[in-house]
């Protein structure tokens, strides 16, 4: 066989390509391929060095060494697990603790409710936010009256006081007395901002009082669950309400 023929046959041969490792099998280790021998060797020596370091650490450890975690640890499936101490509480003590919690939360809720009533009395619920825009309907008989309708004339007041929803005196009252209270626009704007801040505070206190009421209900439900009476859950617990249970009827003396 001539050299030219061998060269042509070699050129016709397909190059050998090694199979690529699927991504799903990379966690199983490196493939037994020629080009991966360096990677496999490096991984092997790394694990051997780690094992030698652990063995040296175990040999250097003092066998008489003691620390308190030894008496609170146990081995499960080859892993050290620290035992969590259990609270020694009787059912009667737990019920009493629940009762004290309910009394404390209820006391805070009642105090919050009193603050809400006091704040409402100060604000008199003027321009309450969240109640929606105020609407005042006026009824007329014809289309012409609609076009010629004037709010100030209909309310018998001056145009400057039309925007007021409270303390809107009539023209006859203004002729006898002067307007009471601030009339400067800057001062009125400042008072409006203060009133808005007070209503924001009122809304926050109302939400806090509702949250405390829900907490009281949940604590009471957990206290009732300590009873050994048969019970069935009717409704799951939510952020706005406690779980609902149906207890078996039991006649008591």
TrEMBL record:
<protein>
    <recommendedName>
        <fullName>Probable U3 small nucleolar RNA-associated protein 11</fullName>
    </recommendedName>
</protein>
<dbReference type="InterPro" id="IPR007144">
    <property type="entry name" value="SSU_processome_Utp11"/>
</dbReference>
<keyword id="KW-0698">rRNA processing</keyword>
<dbReference type="GO" id="GO:0032040">
    <property type="term" value="C:small-subunit processome"/>
</dbReference>
<dbReference type="GO" id="GO:0006364">
    <property type="term" value="P:rRNA processing"/>
</dbReference>
<dbReference type="Pfam" id="PF03998">
    <property type="entry name" value="Utp11"/>
</dbReference>
<comment type="similarity">
    <text>Belongs to the UTP11 family.</text>
</comment>
<feature type="region of interest" description="Disordered">
    <location>
        <begin position="1"/>
        <end position="28"/>
    </location>
</feature>
<keyword id="KW-0539">Nucleus</keyword>
<feature type="compositionally biased region" description="Basic residues">
    <location>
        <begin position="7"/>
        <end position="17"/>
    </location>
</feature>
């Amino acid at each position: 066989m001539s050299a030219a023929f061998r060269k042509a046959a070699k050129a016709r041969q397909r190059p050998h390509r090694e199979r690529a490792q699927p991504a799903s099998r990379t966690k199983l280790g490196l493939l037994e391929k020629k080009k991966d021998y360096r990677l496999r060797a490096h991984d092997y020596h790394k694990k051997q060095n780690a094992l030698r370091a652990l063995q040296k650490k175990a040999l250097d450890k003092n066998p008489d060494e003691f620390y308190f975690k030894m008496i609170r640890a146990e081995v499960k499936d080859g892993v050290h697990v620290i035992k969590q101490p259990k609270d020694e509480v009787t059912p009667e003590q737990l019920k009493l603790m629940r009762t004290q919690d309910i009394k404390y939360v209820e006391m805070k809720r009642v105090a919050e409710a009193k603050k809400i009533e006091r704040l409402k009395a100060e604000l008199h619920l003027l321009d309450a936010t969240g109640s929606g825009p105020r609407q005042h309907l006026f009824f007329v008989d014809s289309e012409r009256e609609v076009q010629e309708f004037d709010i100030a004339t209909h309310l018998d007041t001056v145009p400057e006081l039309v925007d007021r929803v409270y303390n809107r005196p009539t023209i006859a009252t203004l002729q006898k007395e002067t307007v009471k209270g601030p009339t400067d626009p800057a001062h009125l704007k400042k008072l409006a901002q203060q009133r808005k801040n007070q209503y924001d505070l009122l809304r926050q206190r109302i939400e806090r009082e509702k949250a405390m009421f829900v907490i009281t209900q949940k604590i009471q439900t957990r206290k009732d669950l300590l009873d050994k009476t048969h019970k069935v859950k009717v409704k799951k617990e939510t952020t706005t309400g406690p779980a609902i249970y149906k207890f078996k009827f039991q006649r008591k003396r």
